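TICKET: design request
STATUS: open
ATTACHED STRUCTURE:
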């Protein structure tokens, strides 16, 4: 019997617990409905009274609108105006006076001073504010200059990705030049470096995205080839300079023909000499015998042979140029 009473008590407690859970759930749903109703009311009510303006300002600041201090870059000014406009549109703030008031609160420094001067000559309409702002910080003459820059745009020293980003930024100032996919793709392709453009042109790609993607791949392949070439060149220099098993000796060109080197311990490769041809007076990167390495592949054997033929003949016994050790008159 006591056990049965205990079970009845447990059942009663569980029922009370279930009832409490259901009550809390119903209360939560009710509060959520109230919040949704308040949000809908805020978004649909006219923004005319003071309390609505304060609420709208709080929502505007909560989205962290950017500031503008009058930077000379017109693209920064344009971006600022676009972002502020997007926030105002998102909050459905349509009243001109509120849109202008919220926007000018984000002006700082020189831009704030400009507005203090202009506010009495510009009406409170949003369209009038944006027109005055763009005339000041993004005038038509600047747009014309950006259009001209786009017309002359080529890759030069930019990477493909940097070139593509600049191409995209400037193309909107000459939209008729890229009004369809074919025009856009061909103009981008023409501006690529020759070493990148030629392999891409051979593929006869039609879409802009395909050309950009292939140009990036070609650029990376050329970069890897150049890295391998430079690594092999350094290795070959080391092999040639040490092929005799010891450091050779050399005299300067002005002392050629003398019977004996004035400095027998002098290294073959003097400071300031070219590591490509061995001559003094220029460095390897300025050597007239240096071939362009970009995109070039050749066997190590032929490269070493050609390089060795270009070097001056040096005697490893006396250090003089013009004969080999086996022909040296000082050997006796």
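STATUS: resolved
RESOLUTION: sequence designed for all positions
ATTACHED SEQUENCE:
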């Amino acid at each position: 019997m006591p056990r049965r009473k205990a079970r009845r008590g447990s059942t009663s407690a569980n029922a009370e617990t279930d009832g409490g859970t259901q009550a809390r759930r119903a209360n939560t749903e009710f509060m959520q409905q109230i919040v949704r109703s308040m949000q809908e009311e805020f978004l649909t009510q006219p923004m005319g009274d003071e309390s609505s303006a304060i609420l709208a300002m709080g929502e505007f600041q909560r989205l962290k609108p950017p500031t503008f201090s009058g930077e000379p870059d017109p693209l920064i000014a344009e971006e600022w105006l676009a972002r502020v406009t997007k926030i105002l549109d998102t909050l459905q703030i349509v009243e001109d006076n509120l849109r202008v008031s919220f926007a000018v609160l984000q002006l700082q420094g020189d831009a704030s001073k400009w507005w203090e001067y202009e506010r009495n000559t510009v009406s409170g309409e949003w369209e009038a504010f944006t027109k005055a702002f763009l005339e000041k910080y993004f005038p038509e003459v600047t747009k014309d200059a950006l259009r001209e820059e786009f017309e002359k745009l080529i890759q030069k020293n930019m990477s493909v990705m940097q070139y593509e980003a600049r191409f995209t930024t400037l193309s909107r100032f000459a939209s008729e030049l890229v009004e369809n996919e074919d025009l856009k793709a061909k103009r981008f392709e023409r501006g690529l470096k020759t070493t990148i453009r030629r392999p891409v042109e051979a593929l006869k790609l039609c879409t802009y995205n395909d050309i950009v993607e292939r140009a990036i791949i070609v650029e990376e392949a050329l970069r890897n080839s150049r890295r391998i070439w430079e690594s092999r060149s350094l290795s070959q220099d080391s092999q040639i300079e040490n092929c005799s098993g010891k450091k050779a000796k050399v005299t300067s060109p002005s002392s050629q023909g003398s019977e004996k080197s004035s400095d027998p311990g002098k290294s073959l490769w003097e400071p300031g000499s070219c590591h490509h041809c061995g001559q003094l007076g220029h460095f390897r990167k300025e050597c007239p015998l240096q071939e362009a390495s970009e995109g070039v592949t050749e066997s190590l054997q032929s490269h070493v042979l050609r390089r060795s033929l270009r070097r001056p003949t040096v005697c490893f016994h006396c250090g003089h140029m013009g004969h080999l050790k086996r022909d040296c008159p000082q050997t006796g």
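CLOSING REMARK: The chain has a mean pLDDT of 75. Residues 2-44 form the longest helix (43 residues).
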